[in-house]
From TrEMBL:
Name under which the protein is recorded: ADP-ribose glycohydrolase OARD1
TM stretches of this protein: none
Catalytic activity as recorded in UniProt: alpha-NAD(+) + H2O = ADP-D-ribose + nicotinamide + H(+)
The Macro domain, residue ranges: 1-151
Cited Gene3D superfamilies: Leucine Aminopeptidase, subunit E, domain 1
Record-linked SUPFAM superfamilies: Macro domain-like
Alphabetical UniProt keywords: Acetylation, Chromosome, Hydrolase, Nucleus
InterPro entries in the cross-refs: ADP-ribose_metab_enzymes, Macro_dom, Macro_dom-like
PROSITE patterns, sorted: MACRO (PS51154)
One GO-annotated biological process of the protein: peptidyl-glutamate ADP-deribosylation
Primary residence: nucleus
Organism per entry: Pleurodeles waltl (Iberian ribbed newt)
Length: 151
């Protein structure tokens, strides 16, 4: 018996070549940081420069596996807290938990589109194939579109 097309899992994660900050201004943004909100290296430095808000992020007092956020006009900027200190490394589990926390926030606040870099896969050393699977698993059951930019 043929499968109904409507039953096929939706592909929620799209890959795009290019600068993350060229994404539509209506997309929310996400990237990974540590509990100390140091943002001293990698793409986090650009987020710090563009959006500031370190005091506000620290006051949210989010722990590993949670998500902090800033509001930028109508969109959100998500700071996935994947490790304790900037010098630590995240685990797939801490990344998954913070993405689930972001998903909860998106669902509660009507966020339909989030753009991000290949999170966890630069300085933090995770493997993109595994992170991509985690993203697909989490977001395939939702209406939230994830766009991943890579240079
Ligand atoms: N001592 C420190 O302060 C320290 C140490 C390690 C990591 N970090 C930083 O790096 C951690 C995150 O690591 P990560 O691997 O998730 O991120 P990342 O290494 O900053 O970047 C992830 C990926 O995004 C790519 N990228 C960079 N700029 C752009 C752009 N404009 N558009 C699209 N892609 C781009 C980059 O090449 C990499 O493949 C955070 O904890 C952050 O604070 C800081």
């Amino acid at each position: 018996m043929a499968c109904s097309p409507s039953k096929a899992p939706k592909q929620r994660v799209q890959d795009v070549k290019g600068d993350l900050f060229s994404c539509p201004a209506t997309d929310s943004l996400a990237h990974c940081i540590s509990e100390d909100c140091r943002m001293g290296a990698g793409i986090a430095v650009i987020f710090k420069k563009k959006f500031g808000g370190i005091k506000e992020l620290k006051s949210q007092n989010k722990k590993t596996g949670e998500v902090a956020f800033l509001k930028d006009g109508d969109r959100y900027v998500y700071y996935l807290i994947t490790k304790k200190k900037a010098s630590d490394k995240p685990t797939y589990d801490s990344l998954r938990k913070s993405l689930e926390a972001m998903q909860d926030h998106c669902l509660a606040n009507g966020v339909k589109s989030v753009s991000m870099p290949r999170i966890g896969c630069g300085l933090d050393g995770l493997q993109w194939e595994k992170v991509s699977d985690i993203l697909e698993n989490i977001f395939s059951e939702t209406d939230i579109k994830i766009t991943v930019y890579s240079l």
